[in-house]
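Supplementary Note 3. Input sequence used for the single-chain structure prediction.
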Amino acid sequence: MYQLIFFFILLIIAYFVGSYIEKRHYTSIIQREKELNKIPAIAIKTPVEGKFHQKLVLGNVTISVDYFKRFLATLHNFFGGRVTSYETLLDRARREALLRMKAEAKAQNAILVMNVKYETASIYKGKGSSIGSVEVLAYGTAMIPTRHQHNA
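The predicted structure, written as discrete structure tokens, is reproduced below.
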């Protein structure tokens, strides 16, 4: 009986703590998306016209799923259907990786990131086939304007 009570207490704590952390992360993501919206990140490969220096830029993040979401995913795996608890995990990871890539591009004075790609991997498996942590890598080519030097 104590084990069942302990399980439900952990589940309740995980729900509130996980929800708080997720909301805080989404707030941070939305704020930084507004700041970095000036740097477009596009999947097109065709180079833009003009004189540019090109540099590879990366954004990498690893996010872990909380105990409550893992429990919900286990139920979804048992009964079937969309695993929405993992969808928010992947959404946060992709957006965070893109923001980190854009921040690196901004630090290089880039005006655009082209040929943007994502790589996603599960880096930790929990019991069975449940996901524990997901890693997302966003990468692309930063287009940095070259500076013209005028000789007098």
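The domain at 2-145 is CATH 3.30.110.70 (Translation Initiation Factor IF3). Residues 2-36 form the longest helix (35 residues).
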